[in-house]
Design brief:
Shape: globular
Number of strands: 25
Number of helices: 31
Low-confidence stretches: 94-202, 212-227, 865-876, 925-933
Radius of gyration: 31 Å
Mean pLDDT: 75
Length: 933
């Protein structure tokens, strides 16, 4: 671990394991590499050059094959630099053969943000034979993203940050830059845009738009592929390319399929319909009901552009049948539309019907030719017809015919992954039958159940999704338990000494969780436990007892917090309790003088500092531990998977305690933390007073100020939280900077402080210290105070523009008050014009103070796809299963997955080989699990 690049091994091991199975959900690897490279010294120059050149291509939206090739190149460079690689990483060092395969892929845009999380498939390792002709470590193999020309200053090498180089191609003959990776900011680049200067090329604005468009294309491609339930098997008939089907596919359909990632026969089976239309008996135009969605067939009578509102033209076509006529209206249309409505042509119209002054009409209806309306064998009529996501109606017919052909001729090739006894117990359809049913339901199928994705076939596929998530997590859980860890001494005397260090008695819930931790720490395998507790439930006290157990055994402890404010608060708490017992505590921070930072890091490395508290600074390559035994991660949702892996890699299989004050509903906890043991602190310490929560519209703000003034007059303090730091041209919202000035005028006798994330660490420290010491009575801030701030004298929380905050965020902010004996208040000030979701959220806050009740309601309002928000992203977009609706299936899936793992931990029994194959082939890369908190 003394090599300056050794800290990269853990994250790379995670990203590359099992033939890159985790890669689809790994993000921000570049950031970790840049941080490590910036601190590296004395490393082989060629190795550094290779590492820096690969930087722009290790993260999405680079195509998967590019990313794999880039990571193989990184591993080769690490080996060249002298880093000892584990056996599994030795096997994936870059080869010429890999380069040749990946060279056919187009270059990717520079970077984009994607969901982060953790792959669920943690299968028993298979021996991988390196391809013939593997390059020796250090061999100068040119990866696919690199120019084949020598890299010289004239060939476009541009520095991005100290010690970081991005390679670009030399200008083309016309002087415009040739295609290639875009450099980040640095020498010769515009530091505001991160783009090289235009040398005879398009203007900077054009380059910016091109970059933005490239990112959008990458994001759209990612979204399109994410809608697939699974990927096709990599062997057998279903792995064959679509072009080998024997029937010529139209070039337009092929292009659309390719864009969506549908390139193999089996892929078609796993793109599920988004809804269905009942064409068993098509309605006449006269039978269409205004206000409802309808489907009808008619003949085009007239079609042309007509004057619209504001002098703009709109397109209007009249379609009729023997019962009447209906207008199809398009407000934004080009000349191409007229060719779709040839007079005399029969069309299927689908859309919302509305009544107008001129009769019935459909605005922007979806169209489909009715060429085979009379055919009794047509897949488009006289049946329940599937409608697929992302296809225009002109393409629906072609795709529907393709799906019909593949489901009829090839679905039987699907191997059934679930054991027969499991299917019998729960009366589950076979997988081939379920897919045929979903693509082409029988005539007597329940249309409402199909549209709700609740048919027997959909339920079978939903069970599959949830079961393989749980099975993967059970495998991952088993992998951790199989590692050799530290068996701590948790004798009663030591536990009593640890508890005695606290200046108060533990609650019953805290004592129960401490018992869970003690049992885990006593075992010889590494602990992986999540402690959930509502705001103010005393999680830090539990972590302190666990830390005392490790410290008494001679091990060091690392505590990672998401913000400087919370890290400093933890450091004060741990120092106050531990230093009288002889244990030294240090704060590893990016702030402070170079001499102080160096002294702290040296103390940690030599073992002189027993407990290190820090933020992301703990992850830096220059931070090493002499004997790390316990890792505590507070507010886990603020950290990525690779960051957690990096910190754990600074010790030899240390115990891990993850804490979160953001309650997770039961169904999400089962999904997200299936690999962790979970403990819940469901009891608040005595003396905590209930918080009164009220919602006010903007016009009643004076009443809020009156209540705040009353609390300040009693000697208490208040927070006022704004969503913005400064005024925004795009959002009509008051900001914290303006608010501080206004509130100083409203409360002239009070001292008003301002706190936000853009301030320097020293400035934030000074403001928070003044607030803690009661020198500041009213603190105007942003959500920088959302977690960890503990000022018992604060009794009022005012949240401005409260409709813009999520339920979990509002609950966290409310938790900053009510920490003392005085009655406390939370006032949510919201705009009158707000969505029903915002109104519902604010109502929940008024009615409940239970974080778990709030989390369940938040999940119900927003759905699992949005529940985690931008900070807590990573939850997979399940194609069929819904965590709100299918909680019963999730429970069954977890029970069955764990039952199988208990009986056959290595999945070696013949009846379980289908499970192994399904995880390895069909579900690989699709079972991404978030790490949230």
């Amino acid at each position: 671990m003394n090599h300056p690049l050794a800290s990269l091994v853990g994250p790379l091991k995670y990203a590359c394991q099992r033939d890159f199975a985790q890669l689809g959900i790994v993000k921000d690897l570049r950031t970790l590499m840049e941080r490590t490279l910036a601190a590296a010294s004395g490393v082989d120059a060629r190795a550094l050059h290779e590492l820096r050149a690969a930087l722009p291509h290790v993260d999405p939206p680079a195509p998967p094959e590019h990313r794999k090739a880039a990571l193989r190149q990184v591993l080769g460079a690490l080996k060249l630099s002298g880093v000892a690689l584990p056996e599994e990483l030795e096997r994936v060092v870059v080869t010429g053969e890999i380069n040749a395969v990946a060279a056919s892929f187009p270059r990717a845009p520079e970077r984009a943000h994607v969901l982060e999380g953790e792959l669920a498939a943690a299968l028993p390792r298979r021996r991988v034979t390196p391809p013939q002709g593997m390059a020796a470590a250090g061999r100068n193999v040119v990866p696919p993203w690199r120019s084949q020309e020598p890299i010289t200053p004239t060939a476009g090498v541009m520095r991005s940050a100290p010690g970081v180089v991005s390679a670009g191609k030399a200008p083309g003959p016309s002087g415009a830059p040739a295609r290639g990776p875009v450099a980040r900011t640095g020498v010769g680049a515009d530091p505001r845009k991160g783009l090289p200067p235009a040398e005879g090329a398009a203007p900077a604005e054009k380059a910016r738009k091109a970059k933005k468009k490239a990112k959008a294309v990458g994001a759209e491609a990612s979204r399109s592929e994410a809608k697939l339930l699974s990927i096709a098997p990599r062997s057998g008939p279903l792995s064959a390319p679509l072009k080998t089907l024997g029937k010529r596919l139209g070039p337009r359909l092929v292009a659309v399929l390719d864009k969506k990632g549908l390139r193999r026969t089996g892929d078609i089976l796993f793109l599920l319909p988004r809804c269905y239309e009942d064409r068993r008996r098509l309605r006449t135009i006269a039978e269409l009901i205004p206000g409802e969605r309808g489907v009808t067939v008619g003949t085009v009578k007239t079609a042309d552009f007509v004057p619209g509102r504001g002098g703009k033209r709109m397109f209007r076509a009249v379609v009729g049948d023997r019962s009447g006529s209906i207008a199809a209206t398009y407000f934004h249309a080009g000349p191409w539309l007229k060719s779709r409505f040839s007079v005399g042509k029969q069309l299927v119209l689908s859309g919302e019907v509305r009544a107008s002054m001129n009769g019935r009409e459909m605005a922007h209806p979806e169209l489909e030719p009715a060429e085979d309306l009379e055919s009794t064998t047509s897949v488009h009529f006289h049946r329940i017809v599937p409608i697929y996501p992302g296809f225009e109606r002109g393409e629906q017919r072609s795709f529907r015919e393709l799906a019909a052909r593949i489901s009829e001729q090839h679905a039987h090739h699907l191997e059934e992954p679930l054991p027969a006894d499991l299917r019998r117990r729960y009366h589950l359809m076979g997988l081939p039958d379920a897919l045929r049913f979903i693509h082409f339901p029988p005539e007597d199928a329940d249309l409402e159940a199909l549209d709700a994705h609740q048919s027997p076939a959909h339920r079978r596929l939903a069970f599959d999704e949830l079961f393989f998530l749980q099975l993967g997590m059970a495998l991952k859980r088993q992998d951790v338990k199989a590692e050799e860890g530290i068996a701590f001494d948790v004798a009663p005397a030591r536990l009593d000494k640890a508890r005695a260090a606290l200046p108060f008695e533990l609650t019953g819930a805290q004592a129960r969780v401490v018992g869970d931790l003690a049992r885990d720490m006593a075992r010889p395998e590494p602990m992986s436990r999540l402690v959930q507790g509502d705001v103010g439930s005393g999680k830090t006290a539990v972590a302190l007892v666990a830390a005392m157990v490790a410290l008494q055994d001679g091990y060091q402890v690392a505590v990672m917090a998401p913000t400087e404010i919370l890290a400093e608060q933890h450091e004060r708490t741990f120092r106050r309790i531990l230093e009288p017992l002889g244990f030294r505590v240090g704060l590893v921070s990016a702030a402070g003088t170079a001499k102080h930072k160096r002294a702290v890091r040296e103390g940690v490395a030599k073992g002189e500092l027993h407990l290190a508290v820090g933020t992301h600074a703990l992850l830096e390559g220059g931070v090493s531990f002499q004997k790390l035994g316990l890792v505590v991660i507070d507010e886990q949702h603020r950290f990525g998977v690779l960051q957690r892996q990096t910190l754990m890699g600074k010790g030899v299989m240390p115990d891990v305690l993850v804490m979160t004050a953001t309650p997770i509903p039961r169904t999400l906890a089962m999904t997200l933390y299936g690999d962790l043991d979970v403990s819940i602190i469901d009891q608040l310490p005595p003396g905590r007073t209930p918080i009164t929560t009220r919602v006010f519209n903007n016009q009643y703000r004076a009443r809020v100020y009156e209540a705040v003034g009353a609390e300040l007059a009693k000697g208490h303090q208040a927070y006022v939280v704004y969503p913005l730091v400064e005024e925004s041209e795009k959002l009509d919202l008051e900001d914290a900077t303006q608010g501080a000035g206004k509130l100083q005028a409203v409360f002239p006798t009070a001292r008003v402080g301002l706190l936000h994330g853009r301030m320097k660490a020293e400035e934030k420290d000074a403001v928070m210290e003044a607030f803690r010491e009661k020198q500041i009575q009213l603190l105007v801030c942003t959500t920088v105070v959302e977690v960890g701030v503990d000022v018992p004298n604060a009794s009022v929380m005012v949240v401005e523009s409260a409709e813009r905050f999520g339920l979990s965020q509002l609950h966290q902010l409310r938790g900053r008050v009510g920490r003392g004996a005085a009655a406390s208040f939370c006032f949510l000030v919201a705009g009158a014009a707000r969505s029903w979701e915002s109104t519902e959220r604010l109502g929940v806050m008024e009615r409940s103070s239970d974080g778990f009740v709030i989390a369940e309601k938040d999940l119900e309002i927003r759905g699992p796809g949005e529940f985690l928000g931008t900070r807590q992203s990573g939850l997979p977009e399940l194609a069929v299963a819904n965590l709100v609706r299918d909680g019963d299936l999730l429970s069954l899936a977890q029970v069955e997955a764990r039952r199988i793992m208990d009986r056959d931990p290595k999945l070696q029994e013949p009846e379980h080989q289908g499970l192994v194959k399904a995880l390895e082939e069909r579900w690989e890369g699709r079972l991404a699990l978030a790490r949230v908190g």
